[in-house]
Amino acid sequence: MLAVLATAAALLAAPQASALLPQTANLPLGPNSTVSADCGGLGADIAREPERVCVGVPAASLDAELRFYVAEAAARGWPVVGARETAIQLERKHATGGACDALVIVAYSPETADGALPPEIFILFGFDADIPCLAPTTP
């Protein structure tokens, strides 16, 4: 019984990410997201990269979670400057001008044997500093 209580206490005390990319984008963790160390098989190296983070979301919540993250990023000064099938790029122009920082959000779905949509989809967040701006933005 004591072992069960100790395990439960350790799980409750384990730090949970309250912000994604806290040094750069400072996005809150979405309501249906959980931080994923291996990003659905992309690799544990992602967890070691300070400017990359991955979350898993239920497939049924993907659209709402992506909308949540884009709205949160926009509220923090990161307007969307481009998008493709599975990626959204947001930028923030440096106050001194000339260059931008980029926040890239990519949805990733591991392959399944039958080609069906898996129950969990992953969202990878990446930050790149000092890149050429894709579009005019406001600081």
In what range is the share of β-strand residues? 25-35%
Distance between the termini: 56 Å
Helicity range:
10-25%
Given as residue ranges, the uncertain stretches (5+ residues, pLDDT < 50) are 1-16
Q: What overall geometry do the principal axes of the alpha carbons give? A: globular
Q: Give the tally of β-strands.
A: 8
> What integer is the average pLDDT?
81
SSE-based structural type: alpha+beta
- SS summary, helix count: 3
Order of helices and strands: HEEEHEHEEEE
Rg estimate, integer Å? 17 Å
Strand line-up across the major sheet: 3-4-8-7-6-5
Main sheet specs? 6 strands, antiparallel
Written account of the structure:
With 139 residues, the protein is an alpha+beta fold. The protein has three helices and eight strands; from the N terminus they run αβββαβαββββ. Strands 3-4-8-7-6-5 form a six-stranded antiparallel sheet. A two-stranded antiparallel ribbon has the order 1-2. A hairpin with a 6-residue loop joins β1 and β2. It is globular. The N terminus is likely disordered.
